[in-house]
Amino acid sequence: MGDDTVPPGGVADLRPLSRVREQKAWYWYDWANSAYVTTVATVLFAPYLITVAEKASCGFITDSDKGLDCNQDLSVLGLSIAPGALPSYIITFSTILSAVLLPLLGAVADRTENKKGLLAGFAWTGAAFASLLFFCAGTNWQIGAIAVIGANLCLGASTVFNDSILPLISTEDERDRVSSRGWAWGYLGGGILLAVNLAVVTLTPFGLSTAMAVRLSMLSAAVWWAGFTFIPYLRLRNHPPQHVVPESGGLVQQSFGQLWETLKDLRNYPMALTFLLAYLFFNDGIQTVIASSSTYGEKQLGFGTSVLIATILMVQFVAFFGALLFGRAAERYGAKRVILTGLAIWMLIVTTALVLPEEQLVPFLAMGVAIGIVLGGTQALARSYFSLLIPKGREGEFFSFYHAMDRGTSWFGTLTFGLVFQLTDSYRPAIFALIAFFVIGGALLLRVDTARGIREAGNVQPSVI
Prior knowledge:
- The chain is an all-alpha fold.
- Helices cover 72% and strands 1% of the residues.
């Protein structure tokens, strides 16, 4: 048997070593942005903004972090909004904007060599928006809304460029492993910063109030996101565009033209399209559980901020091992089977949340362990599985459609969660309602023929699918 690392002519092929170097650099962006996703989007933003909005609805400022009992709604653009539902509506709005803007950015990604520069530019802009959360205080909930809408939009844009790089730095057989390690690094990095923030919020050193500790923790996530983005920016290489659709005009005009051609061409990739629809549902369910978990834990189950941060911290480190475990399982059983198993576990999780007892820490922690096991694995494998179904040269566009529905920017899920809470005044039926997203997503995923999808995209079939 010949050595496939030595091409004809006897000269050693150094491409595998080059790919490994770039893969290690690429992992760092998951490490960088997960600090924002974990500290801000998952743990602190929603409960903190609800507290600020409750103060605004009552018409005065208080130092209490426990919320108020005046039961007044906010008036937002003429609409009556319950403070408890405000974060869900803000995330929904940011996702609608993403659905409009990200596909155009995907077309730009496919036509440019400097993907890493655009990745970093959006990351640094998003971190700047996130830093504005430090100034969300008193009754000024509006600045918090602007900060998170801007940060979520830039997070979605940066991950379009980040994920479009994945097929450029890995072969089809390497995708599940590389994607899973990226997610694992993300959970490890987010968990380390969260551990620091846990100490700050719990101990409130230097005479800090709890509110100030929370604001400093959210600011630290913005700084972390911006700082560690320098590693992939400096160490990744630029890769020339491949198989670009010929269009006239400047880059923006060309990108609109390519986007239109891709939209017309989607019917030629029915398996990729079916997976996108499946992902729309099951990822919205996952992201809504993540975004709403701290609100559910504090407002429904009665746990304080320090308990919530400690639980999410535990989830982060469990998810680190869960992502690696799911990656190993995919190598043996195929990504699709492992994703479906993960969705079944998600259904059990939201069903358990319906009856979880209040102020009982052990059951709450047990549910957190279950979330951690499936959290990173399902998301990492969804990313690598989708990369097999998309044609070369159009990674940016296809991942832009993918990321219009991606983490922290759920659309139907957060809207459903907010509406059910508005109607029932309880977070239990709100979180249980998300089971529909896992059922529908799983049913659609069952309809995806993996081998056919890989053939349609013109990719090489991995040894295990």
